[in-house]
């Protein structure tokens, strides 16, 4: 269905000495397969997907050698619009995908462009509304939908055309675990019931790898890919989900990819670990830094938060979890004074955030927003650092020192826009830390980060917590919460529904349990690192 | 279409809304009718009545979609227009002769080449009243446009465009949706300024986020263009060259005919040939557009149906326009009372009753049930506000 024949690709204006964006691609994706593209960030996954829909090179420019054929059509001679009936593409940000403004019109848009007869369109829209569970939303403005709903509308809008190939770039990275499962279930159905070929790039491998029929691993920019069955590729892949890490650690063969397979293989491991428990986290008893009492926040006519109680002490790391739209970001915004409480009170470091001048609040609490780019205005890293020093009235060079520590090897002159997702996050973090706030808030920090960037971030945050910072992070990433948080607070519909020790909260509900916990249940192991440490201790004892 | 209606859906579901939605064109005809009426009068009471009629209809029949909120924006814009008009009349003086001096501003002496322009000086009540009425007329026109915007989604109007113009129309609509995105971006970035310890109010804050906002807008438009291309925007069907040439000749010739015909109609000398040339031109242009539509393989999904309600709504607007035009020639003094001497405006009974015809849509148009506010809705409005 999709054939890459000796394909390599170089963007216009790229450094001629640098490796090409893509190189040595030579593989086939047969019809009806779900093919997963994996690799560290910045390795060219999106470019590879673009080459299938024809946007690379027709839209992006650049030089493509070799040949890409989709359903027998050469992308060199067919422009993206001429491939629109065989390839459906959904990019990273569903919002930039929408042309019309209501759900039903959006589903019909692609078919209208292709000239599908009205009766057929009507039928397909109804079918797709049912398939994706969107029937109740059909007349709703798209701008009023939640992230998960928007993602489903975006997928639906390309499905109505009945494409034979579906190309998706990180379809679940912005979604909460429940919504992500919904989307993946739909993809499964398409592959199994309709024989659609799906090509998918994703960082959150723990969510998708067990559904893949084939994995294309891009190890480095321009390096030839490793293509093969998921278990074989995962055995050598630098990016892999916790289940694979655990399998590699325990030496399981064949390597399990799903929790079910791993549980079957894990019986001996569970026995070996019997009697041992992960080190219990001592509750931090530092100074009370964040205190919200019966906090309510209204946004227009909507009550975004109701009666929320939250306390965070110095040295403590708290993960806020809950589905898209549960009020996590609102709570963080209220802690930095972006929203005045409608009722109740907030105090952060002794100050009332919305009544404190920004310049003073900066020294008490810092927030890294969901889109770190929002914090960056200057056109070089150096200028950004200088501005951050001025804003925080810190001695010149303090921000730059932090950047050097968090992000070694980034030159001064580079534009923040040209940094990778993870580098941008580190830069924003350094800027926020320049003022030395004792309270650090992060909104969805691992979105778009690969495993390496994520573990660097985890290490930094651990260090900050150990140095006495209070950290609150809103996240959908259960693995991150299990890895980092002392406490987990679950929000639903603007209310706190669970607040307790991370291990207790995540182990009590399957939706929020990390893979390791699911595999080794009922023993309370949360992360592969914990298991690895315990095994090492066992061996040392023998 | 009726056969395929989702019969299983309970009547309370919004599914009914689309089927019952009024043709967007009907709302525009209604609004333009009221606007025409407003343009024919300077009677403050009549203008107020027109604005009140639009406000009532909007309040009773608009939905809860984002575009439905544009009425308030246009209303504010109208008030600004009135204010600017009055300020200019006060500061620059007015040719209206008046005897009731309100106050006298210090006059700035201007050099000889600026003769005829005055800065400051005597301000008369007559001049202010005249400016007020003039501004109010413009404001009422804006309010009528705002009503059309909030009642009929501009994108739905596209569905009624001829196929040949559709793609240009999409581009226009996409461009129009940019403004709300920009506003949301500015709000988000100003909030982000606060996170960096800078003030989030004031002009400087707005200026400093300008560049990132524009950058973001540009990136988004590029991404949208890519998505549209990948979804088949701009696909063309093969048509024989003869048809292509015929299309070009008919369209260009037709438009020229329309221009010449209009000129003929407006100029006193060409009254004889004006109308036939205009009609011929229109016919040729229509044929050209129809032929041009062949090049685009597009089909339409559930275009709005023009039903009895649409006739009523459009008819009420047209009736208001026609009645006011008639009244303007029948009783010009009532519709356009002289500014000098000052007099309290009188509400002319019959023209006022005619304007009230414009209220018909409040009863004839389907009332969309307001969707319940779900958590999801909360989620996004929140995201936008960030």
From TrEMBL, chain A:
Cite the ABC transporter domain residue spans from the record: 2-246, 290-518
Q: Does the keyword Nucleotide-binding apply?
A: yes
> Is DNA repair set as a keyword in this record?
no
Q: Which keywords annotate this record?
A: ATP-binding, Nucleotide-binding, Transport
Q: Give the GO molecular function terms.
A: ATP binding
> What transmembrane ranges does the database entry give?
none
- Top-rank taxon: Bacteria
Read off the Pfam families from this record. Answer: ABC_tran
Protein family per UniProt: Belongs to the ABC transporter superfamily.
Q: What is this protein called?
A: ATP-binding cassette domain-containing protein
- Native species of this protein? Actinacidiphila epipremni
For this protein's source organism, the top of the classification is:
Bacteria, Bacillati, Actinomycetota, Actinomycetes, Kitasatosporales
TrEMBL record, chain B:
Instruction: Enumerate the subcellular locations listed in this protein's record, separating them with semicolons.
Output: Membrane
The record gives the membrane topology as:
Multi-pass membrane protein
PANTHER family in the cross-refs = COBALT TRANSPORT PROTEIN (PTHR33514:SF15), PROTEIN ABCI12, CHLOROPLASTIC (PTHR33514)
Keyword set for this entry?
A: Membrane, Transmembrane, Transmembrane helix
> Per the record's keyword annotation, is Transmembrane helix included, yes or no?
yes
Is the Transferase keyword given for this protein?
A: no
The protein here is known as Energy-coupling factor transporter transmembrane protein EcfT
| Transmembrane intervals | 45-62, 74-96, 164-184, 246-265, 271-289, 310-330, 342-364
Instruction: Please classify the protein's predominant subcellular localization into one broad category.
Output: membrane
- This protein's species is Actinacidiphila epipremni
Q: Which Pfam families match?
A: CbiQ
């Amino acid at each position: 269905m999709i054939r890459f024949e000796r394909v390599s690709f170089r963007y216009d204006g790229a450094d001629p000495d640098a490796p090409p964006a893509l190189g040595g691609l030579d593989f086939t994706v047969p019809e009806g397969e779900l093919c997963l593209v994996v690799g560290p960030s910045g390795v060219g996954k999106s470019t590879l997907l673009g080459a299938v829909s024809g946007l690379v090179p027709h839209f992006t420019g650049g030089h493509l050698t070799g040949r890409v054929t989709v359903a027998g059509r050469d992308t060199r001679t067919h422009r993206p619009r001429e491939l629109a009936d065989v390839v459906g593409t959904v990019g990273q940000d569903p919002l930039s995908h929408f042309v019309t403004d209501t759900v039903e019109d959006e589903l019909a848009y692609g078919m209208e462009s292709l000239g599908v007869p009205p009766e057929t369109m009507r039928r397909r829209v109804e079918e797709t509304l049912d398939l994706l569970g969107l029937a109740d939303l059909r007349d709703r403005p798209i701008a009023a939908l939640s992230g998960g709903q928007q993602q489903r509308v975006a997928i639906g809008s390309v499905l109505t055309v009945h494409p034979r190939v579906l190309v998706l770039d990180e379809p679940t990275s912005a979604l909460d675990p429940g919504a992500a499962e919904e989307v993946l279930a739909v993809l499964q159905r398409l592959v199994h019931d309709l024989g659609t070929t799906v090509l998918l790039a994703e960082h959150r491998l723990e969510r998708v790898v067990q559904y893949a029929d084939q994995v294309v691993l891009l190890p480095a920019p321009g390096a030839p890919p490793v293509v093969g069955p998921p278990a074989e590729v995962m055995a050598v892949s630098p990016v892999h989900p916790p289940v694979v890490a655990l399998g590699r650690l325990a030496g399981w063969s064949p390597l399990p990819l799903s929790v079910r397979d791993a549980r079957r293989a894990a019986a001996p491991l569970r026995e070996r670990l019997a009697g041992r428990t992960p080190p219990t986290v001592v509750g931090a008893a530092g100074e009370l830094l964040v205190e919200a009492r019966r906090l309510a926040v209204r946004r227009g006519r909507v009550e975004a938060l109701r009666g929320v109680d939250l306390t965070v002490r110095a040295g403590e790391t708290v993960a806020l979890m809950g589905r898209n739209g549960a009020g996590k970001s609102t709570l963080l915004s209220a802690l930095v004074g972006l929203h005045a409480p409608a009722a109740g009170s907030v105090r952060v470091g002794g100050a009332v955030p919305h009544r404190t001048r920004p310049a003073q609040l900066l020294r008490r609490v810092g927030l890294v927003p969901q889109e770190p780019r929002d914090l960056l205005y200057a056109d070089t890293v150096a200028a950004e650092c200088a501005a951050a020093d001025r804003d925080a009235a810190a001695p010149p060079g303090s921000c730059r020192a932090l950047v050097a520590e968090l992000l070694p090897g980034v030159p001064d002159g580079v534009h923040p826009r040209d940094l990778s997702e993870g580098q941008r996050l580190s830069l924003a973090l350094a800027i926020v830390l320049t003022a030395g706030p004792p309270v650090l808030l992060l909104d969805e920090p691992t979105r778009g980060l690969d495993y390496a960037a994520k573990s660097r971030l985890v290490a930094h945050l651990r260090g900050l917590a150990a140095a006495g910072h209070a950290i609150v992070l809103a996240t959908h990433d259960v693995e991150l919460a299990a890895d980092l948080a002392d406490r987990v607070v679950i929000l639903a519909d603007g209310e706190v529904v669970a607040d307790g020790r991370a291990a207790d909260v995540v182990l009590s509900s399957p939706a929020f349990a990390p893979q390791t916990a699911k595999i080794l249940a009922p023993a309370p192991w949360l992360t592969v690192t914990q298991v690895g440490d315990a095994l090492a201790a066992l061996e040392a004892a023998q | 279409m009726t056969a395929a209606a989702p019969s299983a859906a309970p009547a309370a579901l919004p599914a009914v809304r689309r089927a019952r939605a009024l043709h967007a064109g009907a709302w525009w005809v209604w609004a333009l009718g009221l606007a025409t009426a407003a343009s024919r009068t300077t009677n403050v009471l009549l203008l107020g009545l027109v604005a009140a009629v639009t406000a009532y209809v909007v309040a009773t029949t608009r939905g809860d979609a984002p575009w439905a909120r544009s009425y308030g924006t246009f209303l504010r814009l109208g008030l600004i227009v009135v204010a600017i008009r009055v300020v200019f009349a006060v500061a620059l003086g007015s040719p209206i002769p008046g005897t009731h001096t309100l106050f006298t501003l210090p006059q700035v002496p201007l050099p000889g080449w600026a003769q005829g322009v005055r800065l400051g000086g005597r301000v008369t009540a007559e001049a202010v009243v005249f400016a007020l009425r003039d501004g109010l007329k413009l404001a009422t026109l804006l309010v009528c446009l705002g009503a059309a915007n909030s009642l009929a989604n501009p994108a739905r109007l596209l569905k009624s465009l001829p196929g040949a113009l559709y793609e240009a129309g999409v581009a226009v609509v996409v461009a129009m949706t940019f403004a709300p995105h920009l506003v949301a971006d500015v709000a988000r970035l100003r909030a982000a300024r606060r996170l960096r310890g800078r003030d989030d109010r004031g002009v400087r804050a707005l200026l400093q986020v300008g560049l990132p906002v524009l950058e973001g807008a540009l990136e988004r438009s590029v991404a949208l263009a890519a998505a549209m291309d990948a979804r088949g925007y701009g696909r063309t069907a093969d048509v024989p060259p003869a048809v292509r040439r015929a299309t070009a000749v008919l369209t260009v010739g037709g438009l020229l005919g329309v221009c010449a015909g209009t000129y003929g109609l407006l100029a006193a000398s060409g009254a004889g040939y004006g109308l036939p040339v205009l009609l011929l031109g229109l016919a040729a242009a229509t044929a050209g557009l129809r032929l041009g539509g062949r090049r685009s393989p597009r089909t339409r999904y559930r275009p709005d149906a023009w039903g009895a309600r649409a006739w009523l709504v459009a008819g009420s607007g047209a009736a208001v326009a026609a009645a006011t035009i008639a009244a303007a020639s029948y009783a010009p003094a009532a519709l356009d009372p002289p500014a000098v001497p000052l007099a309290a405006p009188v509400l002319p009974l019959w023209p006022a009753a005619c304007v009230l015809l414009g209220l018909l849509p409040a009863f004839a148009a389907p009332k969309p049930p307001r969707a319940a506010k779900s958590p999801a809705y909360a989620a996004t409005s929140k995201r936008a506000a960030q």
